[in-house]
Every structure is written in structure tokens, then in C-alpha cells.
Amino acid sequence: MIVNGVDTAKSTTSTTSSTSSTNMIDYNGFLQLLIAQMRNQDPTNPTDSTEYMSQLAQLSSVEQAVQTNAKLDTLLSTSAITQAEGLIGRTASFTDESGTSTTGKIKEVYIIQGGAVATLENGVKVSLGPGITIS
DSSP string of 63-125? Predict the structure, then answer.
């Protein structure tokens, strides 16, 4: 009976996940392929009218999904700003990586891609997330 080591299993897993991510296509690539396929069909001998209509429906569906995502992003940004506004003037307490405990009033909050960052009155910046207490 052959038993693989832990390192062997780990390297196999990482290779598999990186391979699957390269097979993904983004929205623009999908649209380019779909439009190229529709553009290069012979109008005198189309493949199948139901297939053609299905392709048009897919195009419409993808476009609606992209618009919905854009609106959701806007809604989430607005919600994050509203929540951040409510934190100004409150007290934040946290312990950093070195074990130093810090407490201070929140002077400003700004939103970044990964969440929100608060600036305390003493100039310390802290990412709002796990490990921080707001009172």
C-alpha cells in the first residue's frame, strides 16, 4: 500500500485549482465570443432559428445580470457610507498584532475595496472588522 505525503497532496490541490481558474472567461470575453458566433453565421443558411433566439436570449440575460450587479454595488456602497457615518464620534478599542491595546474616538471613516478604515483622533488607522469593539 502506497501512502502519499502531506506535501504531495497539497501540491496536487494547488495545481488543480490554478488550472480551473485559467479556464474561466470574463463577461467581455463571453460577449465577444457570442457576438462573433452570431456575426459569422451564414444568413442564407442559419444553424437553427431556435438556437439563434436562444443566443439572443442569453445575451439579454447576461446584460441584465451585469446591470443588476452594478446597481447592487451602488446600493452596497451607499449602505456602507451610511453605516460609516454613524461610527464617527464613537469609541473604538482593539489590540494590534504586537499585543498593544488601543482605544480612541473615531474621527473619520473611509471606504476601501476590502471594507472600511477608521482614523482615530490620535491618528491611528484601524480596519473595521473582526477584533475591534465600537462603543
Answer: HHHHHHHHHHHHHHHHHHHHHHHTTTTSEEEEE-TTS-EEEEEEEEEEEETTEEEEEETTS-E
